[in-house]
Amino acid sequence: MTASGTILRGFRTFATDVVEGFIEITHNSFALIGLAVAFVVIMLTARDDLRQAGEEQLMTWLRERQVEMVGMPIEPEASGRATAANPKDLPKQQAAVAFWLSKKYRVAAEPLSVLVAEAYEIGARSKIDPTLILAIMAVESSFNPFAQSAVGAQGLMQVMTTVHTEKYENFGGHFAAFDPVTNLRVGVKVLQECIARAGSVEGGLRYYVGAANNPDDGGYVAKVMAEHLRLLQVAGGRSVPLSPPPTLSTQAPPQSVPASIPAAAPAAPATPSDKVALLDAS
Questions:
Q1: What pTM does this model have?
Q2: pLDDT in tens, 32-83
Q3: Measured at the alpha carbon of residue 26, what is the angle toward residues 25 and 28, in degrees to the nearest 5?
Q4: Rounded to an integer, what distance in angstroms lies between the CA atom of residue 228 and that of residue 209?
């Protein structure tokens, strides 16, 4: 055998040994990996706490990766915080009211649907017409849940939060004034007390706006009652234009109040807290 043949044979032997060694090492490595995986599976099956911790760690890693990809936090539960519902799921009467208010005040029908449904539910419990509750919201805030007046009245129903702090305690504190449903509930409670104190709806509205002791309420009662009448007609199935308002049978026709103009403040109220304060003596 020539020298070159010997070298070639030696190289082939070396290459064969390397390949067989690599296969042996790979086989053993796969075997070790398999044993490790089997051990981990057994441990996770036997230990619920380890499995839960592993799942949480994996979910955290996946969320972090998704946040990096989309460039913003991922919150699947965010829709649960929204005060919104499908207006088509409401009873026909309530749906008509929600759609009409949506068009007039240029507010989405979905959040209005929740407020309309809540007004009807709480109105039945408190024996207050739900369309009156909605009319007050319309005049007070034009359905802006973050509205605040010059004297500190806040939210949809423009409740004096500092005066009625105790009414928010069951809802987690005074910041709940900006939760639409909570503000509605507290406002209706205050309205109910006002009506009981005055003995009539019109008188209760004067207390509500803080003008019970004033000769003039700035047209507040007329505005609320006019909107109340319009909503009654809408709920009754009538086609009601967004403006002008219909004629009231008990008084002269009030002027239409555009949605962009807030309710007029009472002329020289006795005290700022009189807007919805019932704890003070009249």
A1: 0.65
A2: 566 566 655 665 566 676 667 767 777 776 666 666 666 766 666 677 677 8
A3: 65
A4: 16
Q: What is the SS3 assignment for 242?
A: coil
User: Sign of the C-alpha dihedral, residues 111, 112, 114, 115?
Assistant: positive
Asked whether residue 100 falls in the same domain as residue 48, the answer is: no
In which domain, by residue range, is 138 found?
Answer: 87-275
CB-CB contact of 90 with 117 (8 Å):
yes
Cis peptide upstream of residue 73 (ω within 30 degrees of 0): no
Q: Do residues 92 and 70 both lie within one domain?
A: no
Give me the amino acid identity at 45.
T
For the chain, what is the domain count? 2
Q: How far apart are CA 235 and CA 96, in angstroms?
A: 6
Write the single-letter amino acid at 160: M
Q: What is the pLDDT of residue 255?
A: 36
Residue 244: cis peptide before it, omega within 30 degrees of 0: yes
Radius of gyration over alpha carbons of the chain, in Å?
35
- Is 240 inside any structural domain? yes
Q: What is the DSSP letter of 153?
A: E
Between CA 254 and CA 231 the distance in angstroms is 15
